[in-house]
Amino acid sequence: MSKELGLLNFLCMLAAIGFLAMIVITALTAGDILTTDTLFIMTVCLVMAVMFAASPLLYLKSEGKLPIPGMKRVGGSTASASGQLAAPAPPMLDAKGRAMPADVKAIVSRFAQTESKEV
Prior knowledge:
This protein is 61% helix and 0% strand. By secondary structure, it is an all-alpha fold. The chain has a domain at 2-63. The radius of gyration is 24 Å and the shape is elongated. 3% of the residues are buried.
């Protein structure tokens, strides 16, 4: 299944690059770029390039091979030797046994870090 997925991703990226090449060719060969027809053709080619490039890029992001600048990796989801993801940490519970919201967890973790530095 991985070989087929790789082939499909390659073909999608090839189609996206082809549509981007069509935009460049249209811009270079058109006499006036700001006509309705030229802008329409360039817009359609750009939309098609984005549609074909979206699937391979999302696949690379899900595999962790495409770092996105400005985004932190949330949770240290490490893979075990068998290739499966490790189980997530159990949720923090309040006095009544309910799961704490994420913002409360962040505050509690900051307090725990400052206490360990003072000791």
